[in-house]
Amino acid sequence: MINRLALIGLGLIGGSLSLALKERGLVGEVVGYSRQLQTRLRARELGLIDRPVDSAAEAVRGADVVFIATPVQAMASVFAEIGPELDPGALITDGGSVKGNVVAAAKLSLSPAQWGQFVPGHPIAGTERSGPDAAFATLFVDHRVILTPISENAPEMVTRAVDLWQSVGAIVEQMDVQHHDHVLAATSHLPHLAAFGLVSALSRLEERYEVFRYAAGGFRDFSRIASSDPQMWRDICVANRDELLPMLDHYLVELHRLRQLIEASDSAGVEKLFADAKAVRDALYRPATSQS
Ligand SMILES: NC(=O)C1=CN([C@@H]2O[C@H](COP(=O)(O)OP(=O)(O)OC[C@H]3O[C@@H](n4cnc5c(N)ncnc54)[C@H](O)[C@@H]3O)[C@@H](O)[C@H]2O)C=CC1
Ligand SMILES: O=C(O)C(=O)Cc1ccc(O)cc1
């Protein structure tokens, strides 16, 4: 049971965690801060928080759990601001999609004792929607959450972070920071880059209106995540550039290979590449029915 939860960043992720805890009766009071007053008021209206406050520092005062859910590049200023007000027993954790830059920012701003209270985390659950209105209580159910504990964490702090996420239905795994950023560059950051890039490229075509008018389901599926929040994804791509750029180059090599196969009218080569990719994708998602 959490007595007082401090939520910093009142959007999809922060709001959903709060709703999930509230729905289960696992939290006493939720105090919330988000940069814009309008967001704070809307979060209270929607029942995501009980008490809006005017600063991150004020939010963490007296809180036994602090959850930071701002875009990742905003977290450095949040850590700097909350340091002086943190309770010595508080669990500090976050939901940022990149862990390396968040961990570095926390280390820079927190005192040595507070640094051991910080258990970095990342729920692998979300949607393309953002803001307080996008939050919903079941977001984390049966989804993975990756924790990337640091060596200075007391085991009790890590256990509290694990319990927090398990209590809202998530499946918790642990890995080191660098490995997290490497893997997520491949499975999440690169696909978002590809979707934003495809929509951007098509939108620059002279015949763009016709192109989009005749877009089929495939375009809709592939491009959904290009409706995600631009600021959030700007932060992720820049923060994780060291892992993302080699992954992007790897993808470009594959696209170039595909281009060469098509240019050579190498039907067998194209089919083999597609068949191999289909087998991997089908094995991952095991379609209920096969229609071929
Ligand atoms: N959207 C998604 O599907 C997922 C997002 N994440 C991560 O969770 C974090 C939050 O993402 P969302 O909830 O989707 O974003 P969101 O845009 O819905 O909410 C973020 C909130 O933080 C506020 N904010 C920005 N700068 C701030 C600052 N300096 N101080 C206080 N508040 C500030 C924004 O105004 C906004 O209300 C990000 O780090 C993101 O990478 C993790 C998993 C999934
Ligand atoms: O909308 C989708 O399908 C997502 O992929 C959501 C998402 C966005 C960012 C994350 O760090 C994790 C999950």
Automatic annotation (TrEMBL):
PANTHER family listed in its UniProt record: PREPHENATE DEHYDROGENASE (PTHR21363), PREPHENATE DEHYDROGENASE [NADP(+)] (PTHR21363:SF0)
Protein name: prephenate dehydrogenase
Enzyme Commission number(s) of this protein: 1.3.1.12
GO annotation, biological process: tyrosine biosynthetic process
A Pfam family the protein falls into: PDH_N
Organism annotation: Halothiobacillus neapolitanus (strain ATCC 23641 / DSM 15147 / CIP 104769 / NCIMB 8539 / c2) (Thiobacillus neapolitanus)
Top-level EC class as recorded in UniProt: oxidoreductase
Pathway named in the protein's UniProt entry: Amino-acid biosynthesis; L-tyrosine biosynthesis; (4-hydroxyphenyl)pyruvate from prephenate (NAD(+) route): step 1/1
Keyword annotations: Amino-acid biosynthesis, Aromatic amino acid biosynthesis, NAD, Oxidoreductase, Tyrosine biosynthesis
GO molecular function: NAD+ binding; prephenate dehydrogenase (NAD+) activity; prephenate dehydrogenase (NADP+) activity
Domain Prephenate/arogenate dehydrogenase span(s) in chain numbering: 3-292
Chemical reaction(s) catalysed: prephenate + NAD(+) = 3-(4-hydroxyphenyl)pyruvate + CO2 + NADH
Family: Belongs to the prephenate/arogenate dehydrogenase family.
Gene3D superfamilies named among the record's database cross-references: 6-phosphogluconate dehydrogenase C-terminal like domain, NAD(P)-binding Rossmann-like Domain
